[in-house]
Structure formats: C-alpha cells, structure tokens
TrEMBL record:
Name of this protein: Class C beta-lactamase-related serine hydrolase
Entry superkingdom: Bacteria
Signal sequence coordinates: 1-21
Any single Pfam family the record assigns to this protein: Beta-lactamase
Key words, A-Z: Hydrolase, Signal
A GO MF label: hydrolase activity
Amino acid sequence: MKKSLIAVALLTTLSVGMVEAASSIGKIRVEMGANASNILHPDVNRYTYKHLSEFVNTKQIDNGGYKQVIELPKSYKQLDLNMTFEHKGERLNLLDTLNKHRADAFVVLKNGEIVAEQYFDGQSERTHHQMMSVTKSFTGIIAATLVAEGKLNRDALVKTYIPELAQSAFSDATVGEVLDMTNNLKYSEAYEDPNAEVFKHAKTVGLTPKEPGYAGPQTIHEFLAELEKDGERDHGQEFHYLTANTDVVAWLISTVENKPFSEVLQERIWTKLGMERGAYIMSDPASVGLASGGLNGTARDMARFGQMLADGGKNLKGERVIHPRAVMETVKGGDPEKFAKGGYSEGALAGWSYKNQFWHTMNDNQAFTALGIFGQWIYVDPTENVVVVRQASSEKSVVDAYDHEMVSAINEIVKQLKMI
C-alpha cells in the first residue's frame, strides 16, 4: 500500500519496532521516564498521550460549565465487545484486537445512545487524550460552515485572505483546494529525514526538540510562510495528505472570524454540544493553536462530535450547531479519482476520497472518518446512525495491519447493531 489508511503523520520522531509499553496506571511522569524530549516514544506514550499538557504549551477550550452539559444516555441494548469479526478469512476477537492496538478508550453510539464503552490502562470517561490528526476534522467542519455562511469562498485564492502567504506555495491555491488537500505543496513527512518539513512543523509546538543552534521558524505561521511548491504541477489535480494545509485552514478561520482558532472551536463546537469536560489544544510560542493535530479531549466528547455529524449538524437536544449545507457537502465526500491519482488507491483505501478534512469510505452508507496517527478514530455512519470512537497509544504512528483490522471490526459492529 503506497499510503496508509492513517498516513497523517505530523507527530513522530523515529521509526520503532513493536514494543511493550509500561502501564501508566497510578504513575507520575518521573516514574514513567517521560519528558519533553520523548513525548512520542512508545515506551512512555501510554502516559504522555493522557497528560500532554504537562509537556507542551496549550490553550484551554471551555465547555460552558456544568449547566450546559447534555447527557449522553446509555442504551438498554448493549453491544458485546467480546464479539468476533471476520478479517481476511480469519475470525478475530474485538477486545483482543483493541488490546493489541493499545486502545485507551472505545465508545460506540447507536441513535445517540452508548451501546458500548470500555477503557484501558487506567483511563476513564473523564480522561483527556491526545487526538492527533482527528483535530483536522474539527477544523474542516468549521471551515465548511464558514463557507456555507458566506464568510469563506472556496474559489477565492488563499492570499486574498492571508497576505502573509503571498510568497508561499499557498499563494495561488484556492481555499477549497487547501481544504480538500489537492493543492501543490512541498511537504515531506519522511521520518528518516531530519530535514523534512514535518520535523520543522513539529518543532514549532515542542513535539520534537529544537537542536542547539536551531535557526528555523519559531511559530506555525512563520513555518507556513516558508513552504514552497513541489515542482510545477497545477493545484487541484490530485490529493496528497499534507498536515500543513490544515494549519492554513485554521489561519483562514481565525482571519474571517477575527479571533484565535481555539476561541472559534470553543464557541462553535465545545459550548454547543453539551460536552462533559473542557478540552485543550497544543499551541506554539505565539499562542496559535495546532489545528492540524493538537486537540485533547475525552472519548465521550469525541462521540458527541461524531453524533452531531450523524444527526446532520444538530446536538443531542436537536439544536442546530453546524450549517446543514456544510454537513451535506461533507457527507457527499470528495473526488475518488483525485484521491487515487495521488497514490491512495490500494487495499482498504480503494475507492475512498477526502473532503473537508475527513476521510470518506464512499460506501453505501456514506460513512466517513476523522483519523489520527497512533490509533485515533471517530467513525460516523449517518445512514445507520452509528458512531465509533477509539483513542489509543499505539507503538507506531502507522501500522497498516491495524488499520485494516479496525475497518473490518467497524463493519461488523454496524452489522450487529442492526440486529439488536
């Protein structure tokens, strides 16, 4: 497979083999050996992904207080997570699979009710967990709403909103091309290359340390302004998943809303969905939130977000949160031909597309997903009204076999929920 199902790597520092991470239950970071230089290492990530605010700059996202919490009810019909599912001619056990993938939380909703909820390694329904590139989908649906409201024009050039990018690769790309990642951008995510753009990006928020004498960009916006095109290919021809695009989308959002992205996320999402807890987002030294991979929140609150999308943009009380046209355009998905042309056409990805910062299965149920490396998922099936959330601390940023198993497991979950 040329590209993984979760080839969304912003956050990794080295290639590692399969290792057994020490349990983080009841431990503090000193006991785990965790520090700012090894946040992503598989030996300690079962702790760091649940306590990221101890290591990096963050911006708080308020939920509006306990009076605004909307209960996420538990269904009297429960899904047995000890179920089996078929994968490549074998029967696999779901709980065994989740443990193998180093899941930290697993929540399944049907019609807005919890039908399964399981936590691992000491995590609970109150635990904040790093969501990696799932963050992108929160960013994307806000941008899609601003388009629906007429505040953003998908056909306008990025530089008309952000003059600071007039000399960058984004200058003559349209808002829609950046939002759907079909723009031409030189952005290497080759982990073995310490000079790759992905490492400069990560350094702006402290995910990877700056080496002595580092003279590169200090902030997200400085980094984006330096990026160039990858040859002469026209924008809009093919899809390439490149993390930097999402931080441009967030810059567009903050520009048209005239406030930091984190405040927009708070006002438009977190205080509208009845979240049980606030959240936080990683930030750079200029206090700009990392919209491409910095969100930390609870599994239940991630499920509330997925349910809002399954319900056409409404919260659990039926109140409108996201513009219906934004949801409709997102559910339709993107262009499978551009997706395949970019090299994303094999295995579990065959026939998929990408739209508004979501991965789209293009199956009969129009299911789509928010995905993040190290095992983060929010899967939304609007036809069957099923939402699946997984938070994890996998030992590698991308494990193709795990991704394929997860797709097979979710397909079986959707099937079984039709019968209970």
